[in-house]
Design goal:
Layout: E1 2-7, H1 9-13, H2 17-26, E2 30-37, H3 41-47, H4 57-64, E3 69-75, H5 78-85, H6 98-102, E4 111-113, H7 117-127
Antiparallel strand pairs: 1-3, 1-4, 2-3
């Protein structure tokens, strides 16, 4: 199944986006498509809608929209991908996880990974919407 990963603005600014995506490939995940994109506040808010009303929501949305991200649709087991990503707080993440290696804190934890397949479907549709008919032909 496919799921969404995006390398957050902190990791893009630190020039480690390629290294992070390579870790997914090395672990056996397949890159379906990838793009660099600066999320609008509206896209970031829609992406994190399940956190609306929580104390960290506004900061998370602002951070996500603060600079370019590298969004990728990957194919593989999302539960295994989440193990590779590690705990939300890099200080609590297991050694050798992406967040432990590249994250600086919360929300500067280097990478987002879909929580599950329903979330993945919603997130992929947000970040990779279908092109209007005739576009790209």
């Amino acid at each position: 199944m496919s799921f969404l990963v995006f390398v957050k603005p902190d990791a893009v600014a630190n020039n480690v986006a390629g290294q992070i995506l390579a870790l997914f490939e090395f672990a056996g995940f397949t890159v379906v498509r990838v793009k660099t994109h600066t999320a609008s506040p509206a896209l970031a808010a829609a992406h994190y809608i399940e956190h609306e009303g929580k104390p960290f929501y506004e900061d998370l949305v602002a951070f996500t929209a603060s600079g370019p991200v590298v969004a990728a649709e990957l194919r593989g087991d999302v539960a295994e991908a989440r193990k590779l990503v590690g705990a939300t707080d890099p200080a609590q993440a297991a050694e050798y996880t992406i967040r432990r290696q590249y994250g600086g804190g919360i929300p500067n934890n280097a990478v987002h990974c879909s929580a599950d397949i329903p979330s993945a479907s919603r997130e992929i549709a947000l970040w990779f919407p279908p092109a209007p008919l005739g576009e790209g032909l």
